[in-house]
Amino acid sequence: MLLKTLTVKQVNDYLKNIVAGDIILKHVMVKGEISNLHFRGQALYFTLVDEYSSLKCVVFEDYIDNINVEVKNGMSVIVTGKVYVYEKSSSFQLHVFNIEVEGLGSLFLSFERLKQKLKSEGLFDLDKKKNLPKNPKKVAVITSPSGAAVHDIINILRRRKPSIDIMMVPILVQGNKASSEIVDAIIKVNKRSDIDLIILGRGGGSFEDLYPFNDEIVARAIYNSRIPVISAVGHETDFTISDFVADLRAPTPSAAAELAVTDVNFYNEKIKNYRRSLYRYMLSIIDKKRHRLDNLKKLLIGKNPIIKNRQMKERLDTLNRIMEDSIYKILRDKKLQYVNLIEKLNTLSPLNVLKRGYTMTMDKDKNNLVTKANDISADDKIYLLFEDGEALCTVNEVMRYERKYGL
């Protein structure tokens, strides 16, 4: 009997039709523990797990309002929905209509008990955490060699610091043997003297997938590590015991690589800023020194005896010119004043009167001017002054006139 050859799509379509036609799978109630809870867009995604298996679930926007409970990771619930087949990926998904709380799951309770135990012992104390090296030369990456996380970590480390030396330590990141492999890797790395930092992590997964990082032996290995440890397990919303006990928790493996080393461009930019600051500082110093030099030059010029002598000579010449001008002005003013006085004196001088035919009469001693007849008597000697000479006379007779009409 020859079987018909089917395409992958035909097989998936066939399975999808079977599931879609199954009356039980159209409205099924499933009991399990919520894991890997997160929102994507307007839809709520999570994985329903038990000790044997897992089932991906989604609550679409139309049914979000029907969920009357606050769901959390580790919560034991009973969900109602229909099973749907995605033919492109050959995967099952439960489209959830309703969620009822049953209680906290065993895995979550185990997680909380260990968390409280280690916290009470001081494994989470901040003062016990080691400082990360500022500029690590060699980093040990403990993770799965086949996952996307390791490629993200290595690419980012190389991009941010091309000279970084990376030691890849491959381990299992889920399953029964994962915890012991993580512990062995941490111990192995701590025996080396050339490792500055450890990045321990893996990509996202369900709560049970991440459970090796919630193992007590892993937590104590991280705590006892001589080398600082960055824990980078799962997505940003995932928290494990390893995150609490590590020296630093990174939200994702990519973020761990960014936290581990400073971007070389940061240092390059810092060097440029220092260079610019140094250049401005040097210019400022040069400008101050130049200003100081100019002041000293001016001070030196002021103290130079040759310059000082030249300045004093110029000052003396200036004062001399001022003095000459002042003397000339004074002489000119005095001369003008003298001429005015001479002219005034000439105007008032009796000699000018004599030129018009008048004479002046003086007593015999020429000390007093005789202006009235009462001043002389007969036989007195008097002098008559003319313009061109004088004459000594004797008074024969004095005739006095009676003053009339004010004459």
Automatic annotation (TrEMBL):
NCBIfam families: xseA
Record InterPro entries: Exonuc_VII_L (IPR003753), Exonuc_VII_lsu_C (IPR020579), OB-fold_nuc-bd_dom (IPR025824)
GO molecular function annotations of the record: exodeoxyribonuclease VII activity; nucleic acid binding
Domain OB-fold nucleic acid binding stretches: 6-100
Physiological role: Bidirectionally degrades single-stranded DNA into large acid-insoluble oligonucleotides, which are then degraded further into small acid-soluble oligonucleotides.
Family in the record: Belongs to the XseA family.
Compartment annotation: Cytoplasm
Catalysed reaction equations from the record: Exonucleolytic cleavage in either 5'- to 3'- or 3'- to 5'-direction to yield nucleoside 5'-phosphates
Single Gene Ontology BP annotation: DNA catabolic process
Record key words, sorted: Cytoplasm, Exonuclease, Hydrolase, Nuclease
Annotated Exonuclease VII large subunit C-terminal domain residues: 123-322
Pfam families: Exonuc_VII_L, tRNA_anti_2
EC nos: 3.1.11.6
Enzyme class: hydrolase
Subunit structure: Heterooligomer composed of large and small subunits.
PANTHER family (UniProt xref): EXODEOXYRIBONUCLEASE 7 LARGE SUBUNIT
Top-level taxonomic group: Bacteria
GO cellular component: cytoplasm; exodeoxyribonuclease VII complex
Protein's recorded name: Exodeoxyribonuclease 7 large subunit
CDD domains linked to this entry: ExoVII_LU_OBF
